[in-house]
Specification:
Elements: H1 3-37, H2 43-61, E1 65-67, H3 78-83, H4 87-112, H5 118-133, H6 141-174, H7 179-206, H8 208-214, H9 221-247, H10 263-282, H11 285-309, H12 316-344, H13 346-361, E2 367-369, H14 372-389, H15 391-400, H16 406-425, H17 434-447, H18 456-493
Antiparallel strand pairs: 1-2
Length: 494
């Protein structure tokens, strides 16, 4: 190889690590944000757990067979038609430009604490390269539109699931006269559901690259039946263990330093206030005045009850309930991290490997094997980014969208995992972003407590960053590609 090609290879490896670093700083960080925000994990422990499971997913499973052009945004073979012998160098420059563009946007987003999708970032960047590399007409705009649709559907779906789960949890546990006893009855059932979902996520999302390498279709009936049997068996085993563990929890006596409100009476006061508002609107004269006076008193009691309850964080018995959900939240978060590492490391390693193989072989291949050391490089980059800058996005997801407790964080993580499983198993055909799914779930949990529980300013900033992810990635990619093409393709031709 020439000196120019060696320089390009060094640049490819550095940029691949840079992209992986930014994936860790943004994408991985938001996956652990709910656990830190709820207090289930300290920041240090979250980083350690995420590092273990993300690296395991990236290295053990990883992108064993990676497409040279992420998400098939265009046919790389067309580059030979446009550039002839220079096609390999052009492809390498395009992939480096895409990685630089996506990594730069992720760095900006991480600095401001915005959780954005790394998949959408790299897709937008590859689209930008494709527009100038093979022409706008040859870009798979249908695929781009499908990805955009997934951006809309995934947070709505996960938010709806999180809303329903948390509302059900409030009714079955927090609104009960004896919430600790109710939590003891409910926890084993939740453990069963969690085990079923995380086994499914691991099999159909986390191990997806492994199935591809082995040439196995995971949706064949016998494989699906085996996975279902393992999932149910794991669920039953987890439920049995949970029954034994919660039986050891002693129900402490109710504290007497409260005004006497519980979750059920608080909810009833809220409903009474709404009914009195309707009566006041319909009443006239003396009745209107009496209802107004009564409404003021009920609203005062309701505000007092809300401050006292706050869905259970200021009483000993409801703090016991929250502790029960700590383990469930951590368990779900770890398996989501494993699945994320197994798949999304390809956002850095796929384009990097494509560029590396193009320079080494001097040809444009549709598919290329990913060396083990590439997966290790990506895994180390992800862990480093999470440890060094991930705290900003963790703080946004865990604290700035809505106030989280272990029970709320569990509902968000479980809803995100359920959405990922549905998208992996059902023939929806929509790409699901882990980031959008998790943020949507956190918003859903907040909505279950009322719109006032959501920081709308933070929510608007996050959604705005999502809207601009693909166009900004495309624009930056164009700029970087023209610069790299002028340096390396011209030098290679010379």
């Amino acid at each position: 190889m020439t000196g120019v090609e060696w320089i390009l290879i060094v640049l490819i490896l550095l940029v691949g690590f840079y992209m992986a670093w930014n994936i860790g700083a943004n994408d991985v960080a938001n996956a652990m944000g709910t656990s830190v925000g709820s207090g289930a994990l300290t920041l240090k422990r979250a980083v350690v757990l995420a590092a273990i499971f993300e690296f395991a997913g990236a290295y053990i499973v990883g992108a064993n067979v990676s497409e040279t052009v992420r998400k098939k945004m265009f046919d790389p073979q067309l580059l030979q038609t446009f550039y002839g012998d220079q096609a390999a160098l052009v492809l390498a420059c395009g992939m480096v430009a895409a990685l630089l563009a996506a990594g730069t946007w992720l760095l900006v987003a991480s600095h401001f604490g915005w959780p954005v999708s790394t998949t959408h970032s790299i897709v937008g960047s590859v689209v930008g390269f494709g527009c100038v590399g093979v022409g706008v007409a040859n870009v798979a705009w249908t695929k781009v539109g499908l990805i955009t649709l997934g951006w809309i559907v995934s947070p709505i779906l996960s938010g709806t699931i999180a809303y329903l789960i948390f509302r059900g949890l409030l009714r079955r546990v927090f609104y009960q006269p004896q919430p600790v006893d109710a939590a003891k009855r409910t926890a084993p059932q939740l453990v069963f559901l969690v085990m079923v979902v995380i086994v499914g996520v691991t099999a159909f999302k986390g191990l997806k690259p492994l199935w591809s390498r082995l040439g196995v279709d995971p949706f064949e009936w016998h494989i699906m039946a085996t996975v279902a049997a393992i999932a149910v068996g794991s669920g039953i085993a987890g439920m049995v263990v949970a029954v034994q563990l919660v039986a050891r929890i002693e129900t402490e006596p109710r504290s007497d330093d409260r005004a006497g409100f519980d979750a059920r009476s608080t909810r009833s006061l809220g409903k009474a206030a709404m009914h009195l508002q309707r009566v006041r609107s319909a009443a006239e004269g003396p009745v209107h005045e009496k209802v107004t006076e009564l409404l003021r008193e009920v609203e005062r009691l309701y505000e007092t009850a809300q401050r006292e309850m706050d869905f259970g964080t200021d009483s000993v018995e409801l703090q016991q309930v929250e502790r029960i959900f700590v383990f469930l939240q951590i368990l779900t978060a770890c398996f989501v991290a494993f699945a994320h590492g197994a798949n999304d490391v390809a956002n850095a390693i796929g384009p990097m490997s494509a560029a590396y193989q193009a320079v080494r072989t001097g040809s444009v291949a549709l598919k290329s094997g990913v060396p083990t050391w590439c997966l290790a490089l990506g895994g180390v980059g992800i862990v480093a980014g999470l440890a060094m800058l991930g705290w900003r996005v963790i703080k946004t997801v865990g604290e700035r969208i809505t106030e989280l407790t272990p029970s709320r964080g569990f509902c968000a993580e479980f809803a995100a995992a359920s959405t990922i499983l549905l998208a992996s198993v059902l023939p929806l055909g929509l790409p699901v972003s882990t980031t959008h799914t998790l943020v949507g779930a956190v918003l859903g949990v907040g909505m279950a407590r009322g719109i006032g529980a959501i920081n709308l300013k933070t929510a608007r900033a996050i959604v705005t960053s999502w809207i601009f992810t693909i166009p900004i990635g495309a624009g930056l990619s164009l700029a970087f590609f023209f610069l790299l093409k002028a340096i390396f393709v011209s030098a290679g031709a010379a």
